[in-house]
Amino acid sequence: MDELAAPLDQDACYRAVLTRDVRFDGRFFGCVKTTGIYCRPVCPARTPKRENMSFVVSAAAAEVAGFRACLRCRPETAPDMGAWRGTSNTVSRALALIEAGALDDGDLEQLAGRLGVGERHLRRLFRQHLGAAPVSVAQTRRVLMAKALIHQTDLNMAEVALASGFGSVRRFNETFQALYDRPPSSLRRHGARTREDGIRLSLPYRPPYDWQAMLMALRMRGDAVAGGGWSRPLAQATDGADGQVSVRPLQPGRVEVQLEVSDLRAVPGILSRVRRVFDLSADPEAIGRDLSRDPVLAPLVQQRPGLRLPGQWIDDAVDPPNDRLQDEPLRTRAETWRPWRAYGALHLSMAGLGAAYLLESDDVKDAA
Fold it and tell me: Alpha-carbon distance 292 to 288, whole Å?
């Protein structure tokens, strides 16, 4: 059952903006009434007065309200998360499908059908958790993806339009003209770029991140891991293009993705799968806070706060990966770990503990 999304504390958001607190980056966006732009909490620009700012939970909500993305702090580079995460499995699954292009080629009725809910209910959930309709969220995703491609690659504007999910160059140009009052090409920062080795992009995530544990888990399941990085061949039948994708960590908070693809239209879906495989949308603060309520898990989480769940390249399961649990004896105890049950099991596994240890701990507690 979907829980209600907690409303943003506007004054608390403003305090976070005043201190440029990185912990809140990606959790909300600030809308500046006097300039008509929206920013990340860590924007380096001078902080506006409190009465000139309001705060929303998603970039889509800001754009629906008529604000455009700041060109200094670049909202497309914020970690992918928000105050709704962990509260609505339906919204989480819908966003994953939208990110993979579900509303680029299909319509809302088809998306709702894949999720097993009605269109009306899906729109209500999106307004409740993200402050915007699914189609608005999809457009914002396309625009922010296009901005990342414009800034980080030398793809021409027609190629950017294809790779970011726009159906046509005309629609791409019209959208940017409406949002920024300028053509998309004017956003490009000129500099030396090379395409000899394909497209290079960096994706954001929220530290800490235990890269050694992640790469070890991927290697153990048979993925290609070498030289501190991961790679995978792409196939037309499953990925929409032939080619290759590779991933390696950059500085904390960023991961580099290198793509060689035969069809640029496949880029959004491939990046969506990369985010799932490397669990880039995880919120370690929320996971650690909730799991630490369990006395057994608390010291384990403190020891390894950067553990992430390796995801499947192709994953059509109904339940989100973070809430899946295969070990039956853990189910009763693990109900208190929702919606992070799989993370709880991962911490136990990495510590060499299992259901028997938990049952023994419970017996000792009951005897006392």
Answer: 6
For 129, the 3-state DSSP assignment is helix
Dist. CA 92–CA 105, nearest whole Å: 20
CA 24 remoteness from chain centre: 14
pLDDT, tens digit, 9 for 90 and up, residues 164-208: 999 889 999 999 988 888 899 888 876 545 455 689 999 999 999
Span 116-146, pLDDT tens digits: 889 999 999 999 888 899 999 999 989 999 9
The CATH number assigned to the domain holding 215 equals 3.30.310.20
pLDDT at 367: 44
Encode pLDDT of 17-37 as tens digits.
999 998 899 889 999 999 999
Token pair 């995880």 is at which residue? 282
Name the DSSP letter for residue 28: B
* Mean pLDDT value across residues 206-219: 96
| 82 SS3 class | coil
Q: Number of structural domains, the chain? A: 4
In a domain, 212, yes or no: yes
3-class DSSP assignment, residue 204:
strand
> Looking at 229, 245, 277, which one is the last position of a domain?
277
Q: Which amino acid is at 347?
A: H
Provide the domain limits for residue 349.
284-367
The pTM score is: 0.85
φ, ψ (nearest 5 deg) of residue 9: -85, 105
Closest CA to 207 of 288, 273, 305: 305
CA distances to 93, 104, 223, 235, 282 from 306, rounded to whole Å, are: 23, 34, 21, 32, 10
